[in-house]
């Protein structure tokens, strides 16, 4: 219980990144990679334990009534042998709070499923705040002091009165067992301390994030917006105040658009860093749900009105609230000497900042970059094809053609004519386009052959199925003399 809120404390994780990243970056990256998994494991474990705990106490309620004993009223939850089971379950503080806790856990787990998150994000987001109700009921739950222990076992050994009734009194040792009636006490409760510690960290974290994200310093407005091919949105955002925020490749921000919803915050990877002395950055947002659909419609509507008015934009700039930036496992890419990045669709975005950094500067690391980009539609490749082509040309001109290795995979409705039409003037893109899905064995054989007895950091961003497959391939081919370290960031 103390740990379940920590993975969601983004400021807390940012502090960990700053404090301990310099000592053990690999351990920290592993933690950041597993925060969501840790939260899921703890959440579902809590649900399972709660169900088992509840079933056990449902049975206990029946036993309290059926086996009521007048001699032990003090430790019996029931008021008598004729007490109502439903009263104990719903009309007592312990029973009522237990039922509320179980219902909130079931509701949160059900509405946290991927199918619900993608289609009804508001339901997922709102229901997850029921954890505050859960915590309140959890602290209230033990106040009835139902569970007690005997405090005078030295003068009233357990079940001594039963022994006296059935044992021959010629045994003098048994005649002095019951010197006084049994006494019971609920004891001092300390279990609440650990959940409270986790809750306090969360409340401090969320309060700090609320104050900063709603301050003028972190209010941003659009400098440039347009709807992209492949049902995506380009947002170039600028801080309303002259705020300079340090952003590194691979980081993400949480974005809220008050015009769409004052409750929803959505994470997006930054695709272009602020230039020196500037305070603007770029996001590329793929439509994946009602919030992003609404954003896309608003941007498309603004574009249409602007065209109808001969280039004059009748709207005010769109304003957003910003929370972040925050580190992710992708923030580690610049510290790696050799990387293989595998992106599916919009999963390319964490790598885009690396490409743009390599284009604009002469950084030494990563020294070798391998990119595998998979997409269903050709329009997706149009988002960043220019950056891919220019980066290849840059290294070719520097006589370093092997520094940037690219393979592109178009998985659905492959069309040579359409490919020639879209990328006819980009031969470096057209020649690297492949039909269908990658043959991972061929790709990993190339990697281990190129780097025998060396290490390669493998990053992937995409759906769960891709993550599982790449993880298995890394384990399999690490046995061939090349150490493959795997890091991933998933969708949803």
UniProtKB/TrEMBL annotation:
GO biological process: defense response; superoxide anion generation
Chain ranges of the FAD-binding FR-type domain: 213-332
PROSITE patterns hit by this protein: FAD_FR (PS51384)
MF-aspect GO terms: superoxide-generating NAD(P)H oxidase activity
Transport keyword on record: no
CC per GO annotation: NADPH oxidase complex
PANTHER family with a match to the protein in the record: NADPH OXIDASE, SUPEROXIDE-GENERATING NADPH OXIDASE HEAVY CHAIN SUBUNIT A
Protein name, entry field: FAD-binding FR-type domain-containing protein
Upper classification of the organism: Eukaryota, Metazoa, Ecdysozoa, Arthropoda, Hexapoda
